[in-house]
Amino acid sequence: MEVVLDKQYPVSAGVDAAWTVLANMNELATCMPGAQITSEIDATHFTGSVRVKVGPAVAAFAGTIEILALDPATRTLKMMGKGADKGGSSASMELTANLVAIDANSCTLVGHAEVIVNGKFAQFGGRMMGSVSDMILGQFAVVFSQKAAVVQAALAPVASAAPGESAAPAATAPAPQAPVVAQEFNALGLVWALVKDFFAKLFGSKR
Q1: Contacting residues for 169 by C-beta, under 8 A, at least 6 apart
Q2: Which of 13, 142, 195, 203 gets the highest tally of CB atoms within 10 A of its CB?
Q3: Whose CA is closest to 93, among 119, 112, 120?
Q4: What is the structure's pLDDT at 116?
Q5: Which pTM was predicted?
């Protein structure tokens, strides 16, 4: 089964800070719920894993990531990811993502992905896969924006004194922050959301 996704998400940072995150595969992977880079083969090839919880059960996918293109001029990333789990399901995704400037403190993350799913997960159908993708990518976008905002704050220039004036006291360095990492995705939340959506459409929302 193939699912095509076209998404746009606001980012609370300028394009330079956002590009720092988008161009770093180790940082980018931790924006995805349950995902991590397990090894770096070379500058454009990585191995990684994704964990998805369904109550007490955990589905673990292992696979590879290849960076097909990384263009700083257009701030565009193109990559291919492939993976499989022990139950025989497999998936591949070709993703193109780029950043569009809005102003000095905000930009838009634009993505186009073509996802192919085989095995038991393909039995969920396009609607289920679309709902899964919306929830996962929504979490991804939130964490990506948070990471970019942290980078922007770190890159903020320190105001310097004009010639002939005394230099202003150095600002107190901010306390170290814990790394911004996406939380593991729990499919039970998705199932419950789909059940509520089903009944809302069947009986109409209560006002």
Answers
A1: none
A2: 13
A3: 112
A4: 84
A5: 0.74
Under a CB-based contact definition with an 8 Å cutoff, are residues 60 and 85 in contact? yes
Residue 58 DSSP one-character state: E
Which pLDDT belongs to residue 175? Answer: 35
Here the tokens at position 172 are 């107190």
Q: Which of 206, 196, 186 is nearest to 51 (CA)?
A: 186
- CA distance linking residue 143 with residue 185, whole number of Å: 13
Domains defined for the chain, CATH in brackets: 2-155+180-203 (3.30.530.20)
Q: CB-based contacts of 29: which residues, under 8 Å, 6+ apart?
A: 35, 36, 37, 48, 65
**Cβ atoms 53, 185 nearer than 8 A:** yes
Q: Which ranges of the chain have pLDDT less than 70?
A: 52-59, 120-129, 157-207
